[in-house]
Amino acid sequence: LFESVPGLFLVLEPDAPRYTVVGVSDAYARATMTTREEILGRGLFELFPDNPADPRATGVRNLAASLERVVRSRAPDAMAVQKYDIRRPPEEGGGFEERYWSPVNSPAFGPNGELLYVIHRVEDVTEFVRLKQAGTQQQKLTEELRGRAEKMESEIFQRGEQLQEANQKLRRAN
């Protein structure tokens, strides 16, 4: 049941700084272009490092801090939207694909109250972020076009006045 839930979930051991992956939903594997076999038993940041080509990448640092807060406070920790690029498989050209995630990390306790796991749930908000960025770019383009239109209107008005003045001079001269 857990593996087939539609959400993007990982089950992590609280073995900082490794955070060994012990469970993964099919949806998470698809979203990260990996397979269950590739993920299980490996450390989270070994699997999903920051994109080395992005000097501004902060995903690993932010996620590690969130996981540490969950282990320390034993309470859920919701993170702001994170840019966290996903490594493409070699058969898909390799490299990294820019992705945006909205993560929540939650503790899972055993019967005696001991912290057994951290549930890492993410929502892929990449399309939302891209649409918002496109909207912002469209808005900038609209403002730029509006500015150009106003400048053209002003020039047309000035030329109209110049033409009217030239016509008056011609009438007087005639």
The helix/strand order is EEHHHHEEEEEEH
Share in β-strands: 15-25%
Q: Bin the helical content.
A: 40-55%
Give the N-terminus to C-terminus distance in angstroms: 95 Å
- The total of helices stands at 5
Stretches where pLDDT falls below 50 for ≥5 residues? none
Task: Report the major sheet.
Answer: 6 strands, antiparallel
Radius of gyration: 28 Å
Number of DSSP-assigned strands:
8
Overall SS class = alpha+beta
What's the pLDDT, averaged over the residues?
A: 87
Q: Identify the overall geometry.
A: elongated
Features of the shown structure:
174 residues, alpha+beta, six-stranded antiparallel β-sheet, two-stranded antiparallel sheet, 5 helices
